[in-house]
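Troubleshooting log. The previous structure file for this entry was overwritten by mistake, so regenerating from the original sequence record. Sequence copied from the archived sheet and checked twice against the printout by T.R.
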Amino acid sequence: MEQQFVSLLKENQNLIHKVCRLYTCTEDTHKDLFQEITIQLWKAYPKFRGEAKFSTWAYRVALNTAITLYRKDVKQVKTTEYEKCSFFISQEEYNPEEEEQLKLMYKAIHQLNDIEKALVFMYLEDKDYTEIAETLGISEVNARVKMNRIKGKLKKILNP
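Regenerated output below.
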């Protein structure tokens, strides 16, 4: 069971890093959140029935863990202002214009609430609304409506 879990975790670790990037701004808090998500995945793994894809199940656990830790006062992940954050993607992968657009998008996304961040994240990962709804525990129609509202909200943030 342990070997299988480690293999699945290795295959899907990028999605966990992306969730961490959405909810943290520093390398240390990113590592802490990644570790906590991994622990929660391991604790919950015996209950994983395989009815959904492992990645869908892992998204749900990762997002719930991030949101829970983000909201708790005792275990709150400390964040800093976006301008003070070190960016996690190396500059040589992007031209300056793309990098600036990406920074602006992340800054706008950081202004959304936790559920909205999760929805945007999955949408940007090209997940269909069925998978988004299943992962977030909402109806597909609700996911579509929320995403349309979030798009409008992001447009207002990016183009005041």
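Residues 28 and 117 are 21 Å apart (CA to CA). Archived copy saved in two places this time.
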